[in-house]
Every structure is written in structure tokens, then in C-alpha cells.
Known about the structure:
Blueprint: H1 16-19, E1 27-35, H2 38-48, E2 66-71, H3 73-78, H4 83-86, H5 91-95, H6 101-104, E3 126-132, H7 135-151, E4 155-164, H8 222-225, E5 229-238, H9 240-250, H10 254-265, H11 283-286, H12 298-301, H13 312-316, E6 333-334, E7 337-339, E8 356-363, H14 367-378, E9 401-405, E10 412-417, E11 421-431, H15 434-441
Helix pairs in contact: 2-15, 9-10
Amino acid sequence: MTASPRVTLELNDIQAAVVHPRPAPYVGRLVLVRIEDRRAGRELLRRLVPHLASATAAPDRERDAWATVALSFQGLKALGVPDESLASFPEEFRQGMAARADNLGDTGESAPAHWEHPLGTADVHLAIYALAPDFPRLEAVLAMPRAALAALEGVTAIWEQDTFMREGERTSFGFKDGIGQPGIEGSGVPGSNPLEAPLKAGEFVLGYPGETGVIRPMPQPEVLGCNGSFVVFRKLHAREAAFRQVVRASARSEDDEALVAAKFVGRWPSGAPLVLCPTRDDPELGADPTRNDAFLYRAEDARGLKCPFGAHARRMNPRDSEIVGVARIHRMIRRSTSYGPALPDGVFEEDGVDRGLLFVCIVADLARQFEFVQTEWINTGSFIGAPDESDPLVGPNDGNQGFTIPQKPIRRRLTGLPQFVVNRGGEYCFMPGLRALRWIAGLET
Length: 445
């Protein structure tokens, strides 16, 4: 890698969600808006911008609530962004997530034909995502956007999804989430792994050098692209009962059930990593943000005897593992959150309730980061020498894939994995800097 000089981030122009973690506990709501009249859409932006938090100061995790705004390619068109500017966005963003479905592995039940309406359609223009420590404060931060939408003819809220932090910040599958965040150089906010150097700002924010020392191309004019990021969101329905069934069927004993589930994920339910706790959970370690991500693979688990090479967490961030490629240039900031009630303990049959994860990630390069991870690290296993294996937790398994657990003297092989996660829809959005939002709002085309 070619070193690049340390840069100063324009934190007052970058939206807060790029840099700062969520309050804890938190609730959230994603609101999607259709823009029928560009003047009304611009007026909505003018009203929203003064209420959007910048990354200048760390939000108070106990009291603060804030909102983030992002736009799809169709939204930028609906707002009248000039054609030459639209053409300067990367192809995958211009196409949108639905058009990239085959490449992403969104086929079968996850195909756009089965997505929740209006996800995957040209009606998804603007996304407002609000976060707060509780629902009263969430409603307070959404009061202004709702008032603006009600007052303006030509902009309409067309879809909403409530999200929240479950007890212990656990996902539908019962494992602590939100661990493993990279640090951004110049942000003042450290990453979760003290053994990992912060990544160059250009990996997540446009207008700055990335890990290769190069400033990647960005949308034009500069006021539009600089300090912006791309956001991916996907509503992932979780088949938790199916996961429990497979874990129980694969286990050799009751104690082995917990270990098999942890091998799938790469961590124990508490968040304690297998690399540091290979035989049993350690809730104290899992709850300690200064220790629960402080490890590397090469020195502590080069052969995957503690955490399998194909485990979900190891696939999503191979760290310093021996893999094909360089892990650091594919990192993402994850802001995923749960939706729907958890399946009650001890239940092994689906109850028809929609539950899962609203996957959200922030990147500067959709192709090199999100799409690469989805296609190369989740959907296949070529990078770890197992091309016929996909991610055991979130991969597009269809009953023909397996999962290898390295162990002595003979490796353990689980077969017949079904699909535990179904994509119900999503989109690629661009989260502009605050100056860019004001520029769009001031257009006269």
C-alpha cells in the first residue's frame, strides 16, 4: 500500500451517521419518500438540512437524537440534478440495487419480483433515517419532516420501517451485533479493534485519499460529491426457527448446540469472539467494547481451529487472515439494526411474524466494498479456498451447500444448509454532505 498524508476531515459538512455510533439503547425509523414535483422536493430538502446533525461533535449517546438524509439515483433525477452530474455517478449506483440482483445473488425468494413494494421501484427517491434513545424522542426528531411532508404537495412518504436495539444488542439469531467497526483516520472516533490502524478517510468519504493513496473519482461538480458517501440498505428477513433446527440437528449434544451456532457466526451470543474464547462463552468479555474485538487471526488462529475460515464474522472481516486479496480495501461501516419481535426462546417452528435485520452500510465505492463483499466473501468462498461454500448465516444457501469446521484430527463438515436470510428489498443511496444538500435544494433546473 502507498501511504497517503494525513488529512483533515471537514466534519462540519459530513453527516453524523458516517462517523458516530448510535445511541445505546436506541430506536429508529426509516422513511422513504417519493418526489412528484422537483420544486416541492427541493423545498423539503431546504427544510430538512437545518435539522441534520454534522459529524463535528460527538452526539450525546444518552440524550441526542438525529436524522440522516440520502437520495437514490432516481431521487437525484426527480430533483432535477443536471444530466452531466447524474452521468458522473458510478454505474452500479445509476442502475440501482434491483438491476444488480443477479450479480448480488438476489435470486429465487430474494429476487426483486418478491420484494416489498415499493422497494426496488423507481418510486424510491429520498430516505430519511432517524435515531433516538427512545420512541418519544424519535417522534420528536421526526416531527419536522412529517410536518413538511404534510404541508408540501408533490412529496409523499411511501414506506416506513421501525427498527430498534434488542436486549444485549442482539440480532434475530440471538447474537450481539454492531461489533467490528473500522476507525476513520482524522475522525477522532477510534475503531473497535485497537490492533487495527484506522482506515484512510477516502474508504468511506468522497474527496479524500483511500488506502491506496488515491482520491477516487466522485460525482461532479465537486460541491455535490465532496464529503458524500454511498449508503446501502437491505431488509433481510431472518428465518430464525430454521437456524435453530439446523443447529440442533448438527449438534452432538446440548452443549454442542451453542458451539455449533458460534462456529456459524464466529462469536458467542454475548459477542465474545471464538478466537479469544474457543470453548465457551464469556459474557463479561463480550460486553467489554475495549476487549471484544481486540484480536487478529494470523497469530492467534491461522488454521481456523478456533474460528472457522467460513464463519460469518470472519468472512465479513478477514482481518490479517491469509486470503486472496487485501481485506482493508473492502471494509465497510455497518449501521445495521433489528426489526420485528424476536422469536421466543425454545420455539423451533416459524410463526409467520416478519423479523430480521435492516442491513445498512456506508462506503465510498459500492463495487469495491459492498458488492465485492456480497459476491466474493458472502456468496462464495474462493478467497478462503472453498469456492463451493457460501456464508452459512446470510449466504444464498439452497440445501446443497455445506460448512466446514476445522478441527483435529479430522475436520467437521455440515451439509444441506438452507437459506436463513431472505432479502425483502433495498436500494443504493447517496448521502451527500450538507453543502451538497443545500446545492441540490438551490437548483433552478
